[in-house]
Write a structure and sequence with these properties.
This protein is α+β, with helices and mostly antiparallel strands. It is built from 11 helices and 4 strands, in the order E-E-E-E-H-H-H-H-H-H-H-H-H-H-H. The chain is 57% helix and 8% strand. The longest helix is centred in the last third of the chain and has 22 residues. The two termini are 23 Å apart.
Length: 237
C-alpha cells in the first residue's frame, strides 16, 4: 500500500509502515476465525476488509480524518438504500473521484512503483542488490490492488445486468457487496492458477499500472525495502 508519506508492506501475519521521516511502525494483521475463511464469497470479503487493517488500527498509518473519509467511502453504497436509483451513478462517480484523489496525492504513484519493486526484489532474492541500486526489479505487480480493481468493474457491470430479483431499495448495495465477493473468488483463482489462459485476467490491471505507478527514485525504493525488511524479520523469526 503506497501512501503520500511512505509505504505499507503486509504479509499474512504482519505489516510495517516505513515513513519519509525515517520512522517505522509495525503491527500484526488480524486473524479471522478459520470458519469464516472457508465459506465461499464470505471468505473473500473477510480477506478484503482485513487488508485495510493497517489503516484502521489505533497505532496504524492513517489519522482520524483519513479513517473517517475511508469509512464514509466504504459506507457510501448503503445510502443507495434510501436514495433514488438515479443517484447511483453520481454517487459512484463522486466516491471514485474522492478515493482516487486521496490515493494518488503527493509522491504516491512513485512510491507505488517502489512498493512493487521491493516485493519483486524479495521474491527474486535480490534485496541487497536492489538496495544498492545494482538491480531494478519490475515496478509492475501481478497481485496489485489495481489488478483487482480492473476485475471489479466488469464483474459489477455484468452482475448488475444479470441480477435475478426485482429491483428493491437494497439492490445497489447487494450488487456492490456480491460483486466484491465474486471478484475476490475470481482473484484467488487467478493468483493460484498456473494456467496461462487464466493469467489473461490480470492483463488489464498490469496495463493500468502504467498509469498508477511511476519509476521510483532509489531512496523511495529503499524506503519500501525498509518496510519489507521489517515484515520479513518477523515472519522468519
Amino acid at each position: 500500500m503506497a501512501r503520500a508519506d511512505g509505504v505499507v508492506i503486509a504479509s499474512e501475519h504482519f505489516w510495517a509502515f516505513a515513513a519519509h521521516d525515517g520512522s517505522v511502525r509495525e503491527g500484526a494483521m488480524p486473524r479471522p476465525p478459520d470458519a469464516l475463511r472457508r465459506v465461499p464469497l464470505l471468505r473473500g470479503l473477510v480477506r478484503l476488509f482485513s487488508a485495510l487493517a493497517p489503516l484502521f488500527r489505533g497505532a496504524g498509518v492513517a489519522g482520524r480524518g483519513e479513517r473517517l473519509l475511508l469509512v464514509a467511502a466504504l459506507l457510501a453504497p448503503l445510502s443507495l438504500i434510501v436514495l433514488p436509483e438515479s443517484a447511483s451513478l453520481p454517487l459512484g462517480v463522486g466516491t471514485a473521484v474522492v478515493l482516487l484523489a486521496w490515493m494518488l496525492r503527493g509522491r504516491t504513484l512513485f512510491l507505488h512503483g517502489a512498493e512493487h519493486r521491493s516485493i519483486a526484489a524479495a521474491e527474486e532474492r535480490r534485496l541487497v542488490a536492489t538496495w544498492n541500486a545494482e538491480a531494478r526489479p519490475t515496478r509492475f505487480a501481478p497481485r496489485c490492488g489495481t489488478n483487482f480493481a480492473a476485475l471489479v468493474v466488469p464483474v459489477s457491470l455484468a452482475f448488475e445486468r444479470l441480477w435475478p430479483l426485482s429491483p428493491a431499495l437494497y439492490t445497489p448495495f447487494a450488487v456492490s457487496l456480491l460483486s466484491l465477493a465474486l471478484t475476490m473468488e475470481l482473484w484467488q483463482i487467478v493468483q493460484t492458477s498456473r494456467a496461462r489462459a487464466v493469467r489473461v485476467f490480470i492483463l488489464p490491471g498490469l496495463a493500468l499500472q502504467r498509469l498508477t505507478t511511476r519509476e521510483p527514485r532509489d531512496d523511495e525504493t529503499r524506503l519500501a525495502l525498509t518496510a519489507v525488511a521489517s515484515v520479513l524479520r518477523r515472519e522468519l523469526a
